[in-house]
Amino acid sequence: xxxxxxxxxxxxxxxxxxxxxxxxxxxxxxxxxxxxxxxxxxxxxxxxxxxxxxxxxxxxxxxxxx
Length: 66
Known about the structure:
Blueprint: H1 7-18, H2 22-29, H3 35-44, H4 49-61
Helix pairs in contact: 1-3, 2-3
């Protein structure tokens, strides 16, 4: 079972479930993130694991990952 995960779609779903815009998500993730970077990740679809893991760590450290 070698399913490809569409990380961009998952990021969009997460953001919509939280009821926040890309800009707000970027703000929660910290200085290294911008609305444009979020948008590019969503559009790209299959992001590298490093970018996604980094965003998860940033979100958890900001208290938004609970």
